[in-house]
Prior knowledge:
This protein has 251 residues and is an alpha/beta fold. The protein has a single domain (6-148, 200-249), classed as 3-Layer(aba) Sandwich (Rossmann fold). The protein is built from ten helices and eleven strands. The strands form three sheets. A seven-stranded mixed beta sheet has the order 3-2-1-4-5-11-10, sandwiched between helices. Strand 1 (51-54), helix 4 and strand 2 (72-76) form a beta-alpha-beta unit. Helix 2 (13-24) crosses helix 3 and helix 6 (125-135) packs across helix 9. The protein is globular. Bound molecules: S-adenosylmethionine. Residues 6-7, 10, 55-57, 61, 76-78, 81, 98-100, 116-118, 121-122 line the site of S-adenosylmethionine. S-adenosylmethionine binds at residues 6-7, 10, 55-57, 61, 76-78, 81, 98-100, 116-118, 121-122.
Amino acid sequence: MKFTTSKDSYNAPEGAENYLKFLDSEDGSFFQTILFEAFRGRLTENKEQTILDVACGPGWLTAKLAEEFPNITGLDASGPFLEHAKSRYPDLKFTAGDLNTTLPYSDNQFDTIIMSMAAHDVEDQVKTFTELRRILKPQGKFLLTFVNPYYAFPVGIWKRGLIGRLLFKNPELKVRPYHWFAQQSRGFTFYDNLECYFYRLSEHLNHLREAGFSFEHMRELESLQDSSRFNLQHRLHRFPIFLLVEFKKVD
Ligand SMILES: C[S@@+](CC[C@H](N)C(=O)[O-])C[C@H]1O[C@@H](n2cnc3c(N)ncnc32)[C@H](O)[C@@H]1O
């Protein structure tokens, strides 16, 4: 199965379903905990602030933050995710919108914009970030998390061969040369049907700067615990595969 854009991947029922299955798994639950804590830790204590969760997916982060910040709203392009979010969190507002186009919000509308694990899903980052800057208030925060290009897929992938599988061995981390994917192709595919774009770390940061944001903070999301079990917590302890970056809208 082949999709032309990342947006199409999540619009397809099987793409959306795979992601929902991941969120329901043990790894997915850890993923949600660590991302929620990372975003929550960088929000100001102003409970009335207006927050836009762009590319909110099925809305779990919007809903978790809404417990403290009621003026939060989610936006996504995926029909299946929006349907899921609206039926699971009927009191919250979720809007359909495409990050490749003008968004249905006025200039300087939000105090804060968050984007969780979706910066690698947009095809033209400068265009998307420029549009997000338009709807953010001056001095507003833009918080993003994304896969750490130095450690995460596709740079490092966990694999075990046939013998390893027969012997129930733990997978091993195979590291691909950092520039291999960038040179071969801008796109790579998760699970056969979720297509993403490969951005280097410098590109993520430079594209935000080109769109008119100034750098404030950056952090690797690492687990505080090690574990002998093969799971996301264990991997995060050894290889910080997610990054949080914080930017500010400047004049
Ligand atoms: C990996 S999911 C992350 C979802 C959620 N933020 C989370 O942390 O679980 C990426 C999300 O980006 C959305 N997305 C991809 N391209 C988009 C576009 N052009 N406009 C709006 N959303 C888009 C997908 O529909 C999907 O919900």
